[in-house]
């Protein structure tokens, strides 16, 4: 068993006064240092391509969604956040979602839906803020989920880059 | 008639100033603590957060009042007022400046000039501790009771050293009148901080203890006692404690200015204009107020036995020694 030998305090240390003065001088100099606070709503954190925000649906240039309502994302979702009702369409892709809902309160931002999608139709955006007064309005439907392709381009390129490595 | 009017105006201005300063102190506390910790502090309400105290006050008004089960209803309600009132009463005898002449009326810048101003401040200011003890006891909560007990023990130990430090100043000046004490230090070299440095140091340390401030805030002591004596208090009753505490700090800072920094005397400017004098008084008081905050965000809290040891084994002997030396020097020089 080791015996801890405490150092005898010198008179200056016993008086505490020099140390108090030192502490006070440190806090005084710190006072004039630069603040590291980020004023959040005005200065949001920068996002990158790796940022996994809320999933969004890609809208093609012709104004239609890229989604063919195959249901793979719904099946992949570990949080059961996605609900899809599909319908037929005359366009060459034949199927499109009639209802596509993601319950943002259930979504855990895992990105499985993005990975599961065979049509590059759903991507994790860099949108992070989620606040409302009731639960119902946080179940996002087609209108709230659709984003034009350029808005998601950074993420899309990033995911394609990853996929190419496989 | 005229004198009553002048007097009323003085009361209004000085009390408004006291409450305003106390409110601004809560903001300053948060701002300075933020700067020391490299943060920004409140800056949303009004320019630079200047209206934050107002917002806090409004919030406190709308909070629910909680009366703990088994609390002594009367004392529980009475105690916060008992803390706030003495702190506000003591400001009456503080001389903020010399004589001034405005609109043909000559008056002195203080509400009352008592011959025994120092005694009045100590006696009335000492009442404030009853509010803390009663509040702690009436809450019917162990944390509050412990906070109150600690406050009383601390007050007894430090009040003694404080009074002895002040007695040395009184011995040098030969008067209990705060105005005369301040006038005796008109010249920069006559300031009591030079003539009584040890007393000044002792006073500053005991001043922290008397107002329950860090590093002696044993009545509150969040990590050990939840909130100390005000654990059970909510809403405006808590606000009143807060107000009392900050008013007491302001008055103590004023007292320290008067006793040791020459009150309204401006260094190297004899016969200064009364406005300049008032500004000097406020600047000196602000220094002490800043010291309060600065120390709070620097030093850790003492342990309770260390507090008692410091009070009885260091402060008291030093104060007695200082008084002895002062007395000996005074009688030797025959002053
Ligand atoms: S990110 Fe994960 S939890 Fe959210 S919808 Fe997609 S799969 Fe479901
Ligand atoms: S996996 Fe892709 S294509 Fe299939 S339903 Fe989901 S978003 Fe639509």
List the helices and strands and how they pair.
The complex is a heterodimer of chains A (166) and B (335).
Chain A: H1 11-15, H2 17-31, E1 55-59, H3 72-76, E2 82-88, E3 95-103, H4 112-116, E4 122-124, E5 139-140, H5 142-145, E6 146-148, H6 149-165
Parallel strand pairs in A: 1-6
Antiparallel strand pairs in A: 1-4, 2-3, 3-5
Chain B: H1 2-36, H2 52-61, H3 73-90, E1 97-102, E2 105-109, H4 117-138, H5 142-173, H6 178-183, H7 192-195, H8 197-210, H9 222-225, H10 235-260, H11 274-296, H12 304-333
Antiparallel strand pairs in B: 1-2
Helix pairs in contact in B: 1-10, 1-11, 2-10, 3-4, 3-10, 4-5, 5-8, 5-12, 8-10, 8-12, 10-11
Bound molecules: iron/sulfur cluster (2 copies).
Describe the protein's architecture and organization.
The complex is a heterodimer of chains A (166) and B (335). Chain A contains 6 helices and 6 strands; from the N terminus they run ααβαββαββαβα. With 166 residues, chain A is of the alpha+beta class. In chain A, strand 2 (82-88) and strand 3 (95-103) form a beta hairpin. Chain B is mostly helical and 335 residues long. Chain B has one domain (2-333). Chain B has helices at 2-36, 52-61, 73-90, 117-138, 142-173, 178-183, 192-195, 197-210, 222-225, 235-260, 274-296, 304-333, and strands at residues 97-102, 105-109. A two-stranded antiparallel sheet of chain B has the order 1-2. In chain B, a hairpin with a 2-residue loop joins strand 1 and strand 2 (105-109). The model of chain B has no long low-confidence stretch (mean pLDDT 84). The chains are: A alpha+beta (166), B mainly alpha (335). The interface between A and B is medium-sized, with 15 and 13 residues. The structure holds iron/sulfur cluster (2 copies). Residues 67-73, 84, 116-117, 119, 121-122 of chain A line the site of one iron/sulfur cluster.
């Amino acid at each position: 068993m080791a015996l801890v030998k405490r150092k005898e305090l010198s008179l200056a240390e016993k008086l505490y006064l020099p140390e108090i003065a030192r502490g006070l001088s440190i806090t005084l100099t710190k006072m004039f240092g630069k603040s590291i606070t980020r004023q959040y709503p005005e200065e949001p954190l920068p996002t990158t391509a790796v940022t996994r925000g809320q999933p969004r649906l890609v809208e093609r240039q012709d104004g239609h969604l890229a989604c063919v309502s195959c249901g793979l994302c719904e099946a992949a979702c570990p949080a059961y956040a996605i609900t899809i009702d599909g319908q037929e369409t005359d366009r060459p892709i034949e199927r499109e979602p009639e209802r596509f809902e993601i319950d943002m309160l259930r979504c855990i931002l895992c990105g499985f839906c993005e990975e599961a999608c065979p049509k590059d139709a759903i991507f994790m955006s860099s949108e992070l803020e989620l606040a409302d007064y009731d639960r119902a309005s946080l179940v996002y439907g087609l209108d709230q989920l659709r984003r034009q392709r350029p808005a998601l381009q950074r993420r899309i390129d990033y995911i394609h880059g990853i996929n190419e490595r496989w | 008639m005229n004198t009553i009017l002048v007097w009323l105006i003085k009361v209004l201005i000085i009390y408004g100033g006291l409450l305003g300063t106390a409110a601004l102190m809560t903001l300053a506390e948060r701002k300075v603590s933020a700067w020391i910790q490299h943060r920004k502090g409140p800056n949303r309400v009004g320019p630079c957060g200047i209206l934050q105290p107002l917002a806090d006050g409004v919030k406190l008004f709308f909070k629910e009042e909680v009366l703990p089960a088994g609390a002594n209803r009367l004392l529980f309600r009475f105690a916060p007022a008992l803390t706030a009132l003495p702190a506000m009463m003591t400001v009456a005898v503080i001389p903020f400046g010399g004589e001034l002449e405005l609109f043909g009326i000559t008056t002195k810048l203080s509400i009352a000039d008592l011959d025994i101003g120092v005694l009045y401040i100590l006696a009335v200011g000492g009442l404030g501790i009853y509010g803390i003890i009663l509040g702690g006891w009436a809450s019917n909560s162990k944390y509050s009771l412990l906070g109150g007990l600690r406050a009383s023990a601390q007050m007894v130990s430090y009040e003694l050293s404080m009074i002895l430090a002040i007695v040395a100043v009184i011995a040098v000046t030969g008067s209990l009148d705060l105005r005369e004490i301040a006038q005796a230090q008109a010249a920069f070299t006559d300031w009591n901080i030079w003539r009584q440095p040890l007393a000044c140091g002792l006073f500053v340390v005991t001043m922290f203890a008397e107002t329950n401030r860090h590093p002696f805030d044993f009545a509150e002591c969040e990590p050990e006692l939840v909130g100390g004596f005000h654990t059970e208090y909510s809403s405006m009753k808590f606000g009143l404690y807060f107000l009392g505490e900050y008013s007491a700090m302001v008055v103590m800072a004023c007292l320290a200015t008067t006793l040791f920094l020459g009150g309204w005397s401006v260094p190297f400017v004899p016969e200064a204009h009364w406005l300049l004098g008032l500004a000097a008084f406020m600047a000196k008081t602000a220094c002490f107020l800043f010291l309060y905050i600065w120390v709070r965000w620097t030093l850790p809290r003492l342990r309770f036995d260390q507090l008692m040891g410091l009070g009885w084994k260091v402060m008291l002997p030093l104060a007695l020694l200082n008084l002895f030396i002062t007395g000996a020097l005074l009688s030797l020089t025959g002053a």
